Amino acid sequence: MKQSEKWLYIIAGILQIILAIYLIVNPTVNLLSLSWMLSFGILVGGISEIISYLNFKKENRDNWLLFSGIIGIIVGISLLSGSFITLPLVVPKIIGIWLIVYGIIRLVRAFKIRSKLPNLSNLLIWTGILSSLLGICVFFNPLAASLTIAYIIAISFLYQGVVLFMDAIRK
Q: Please, are residues 64 and 124 in contact by the beta-carbon 8 Å criterion?
């Protein structure tokens, strides 16, 4: 490793460690960013479901996919158009509800396609159940769910920073 590359690793490692400490001390900053990204992800997911629905032939279209896409767009837009200050407080509840509804939609779709696609149906059943259970947990423990995710992100930055720093020192 060249000397300049070593210094870049050291600087990157130190910056990631500082960022991790900042995020651990200020988890709301992490929650705000995460909430915004999740809201945007829900919106994009809804759009992609509607596009998928429209790409199917009319006889193969599943109205539950269209319904799920519309719900995703409505939830995504409503979250993104709200106050960013309250987003970390509101997003977990809405994510919980969304996961429950999404899980139920998956279960309904699974039973609808069971005879045609049994393997996909089984996968949809399991993901529908898991999504619903996760949604219930997030809905009833929104702060714990949010903080857990925020701290996992912070710890991953800490880990990556230490790895970069140790790599630079070792070489």
A: no
Q: Which of 82, 77, 91 is nearest to 47 (CA)?
A: 77
Say if residues 74 and 47 touch (Cβ distance below 8 Å): no
Q: Is the CB of residue 46 less than 8 Å from the CB of residue 71? A: yes
Q: What is the pLDDT of residues 74-122, one digit of tens each?
A: 988 887 887 666 666 677 888 888 889 989 988 998 998 888 888 888 9
d(CA 30, CA 47): 26
Cα(50)–Cα(149) distance, integer angstroms: 29
Q: Is-contact 146 139, C-beta < 8 A?
A: no
Measured between alpha carbons, how far is 153 from 106 in angstroms, rounded to an integer?
29
